[in-house]
Amino acid sequence: MSVREIRDLLAAEAFFHDLDADYLDLIAGCGTNTHFAAGTMIFREGEPADTFYVLRSGKVALEIHVPERGALVIETLGPGELLGWSWLFPPYKWHFDARAIDGASAVALDGACLRGKCDDDPRLGYLLMQRFARVSQERLQATRLQLLDVYGNAR
Amino acid sequence: MLADPVAVGPMVPRRYRVRGSTPETADTVTIELEPLDDALSDPAPGQFHMLWAFGVGEVPVSVSGDRVSDGVLRHTIRSVGAVTAALCDSAPGDVIGLRGPFGSTWGIEEAAGRDVVVLAGGIGLAPLRTAVARVLGERERYGRVVVLVGGRSPADLVFTRDLDRWRARFDAHVQLTVDHADPGWRGDVGVVTRLIPRATFDAANTVALVCGPEVMMRFAAEALVDAGVAPARIRVAMERNMKCAIGHCGHCQLGPLFICKDGSVLAYERLAPLLGVREL
Question: What is the pTM assigned to this prediction?
Answer without folding.
Answer: 0.90
